[in-house]
Amino acid sequence: MSEVDLGGTGTPVRWAELTWPESGSAAAALDAVIIPVGATEQHGPHLPLNVDSLICEAVALEVSALTGVPVVPTLTYGVSASHGDFAGTVALRPETLIAVVEDVVDSLHASGIRQFVLLNGHIWNNGSLDVSAEKLRVRHRDSRVRALGYVTMYPGPEVDGHVTYGRALMHANYFETSVMLHLHPSLVRMDRATSHRDVDSFWDYRMDQVSSTGVWGRDVSEANAEHGKAEFERCVLTTARAVAAAVREPWPTPTHRP
What we know:
Layout: H1 20-30, E1 32-37, H2 51-67, H3 94-110, E2 115-120, H4 126-139, E3 144-149, H5 174-183, H6 207-210, H7 225-246
Parallel strand pairs: 1-2, 2-3
């Protein structure tokens, strides 16, 4: 499937800007929505608190433009308490995020939606979103729910974040800084950029236990908009291809079990 036949018009469908009759028509057309889930948390001394929400929403909107799948308003609070004592972070408990996602999906299900893509922009949301997806699949037997990160659709080792360790933990690093320089350069304070040498460890720690600046990753001062554009566009296209195929995937039947 190429990017020219993914079903979109080139303009994102923003759920919150539709009228109620239009939302009903949108539900009938593709029977699917994208729910971006971000965070409001420290991102070092050089990036704003809403990095995860901004990047995730931008990916979601571009995916919508390519596929026609509507995007509901971004959930801008996430599971972020493990940042510890850095100022600015606004965190939800994991069980709170689970409940919020359940309520959002329940509401959309009542509007006729049956396919839900929980698009995640913050790694520590993963556990809550996976639990939400499992609970919702059980509750709504006529629905499909999938939680995925916006970089999930291409191999993790291909993400050029200048991070060696941390099991894909990328925070205020070369990758995120480059993408922000592409999307929102006015919000990036490169004169304050610092790096942090990531190390290997068995345990996950609070960010304030392993980094004095809130950054995890090397070479942040080398971040650039060109690299950010390439990474962002790859996230968008790989996710859009996956979503376009997913919303048209045949449902399981007694004779068809994919």
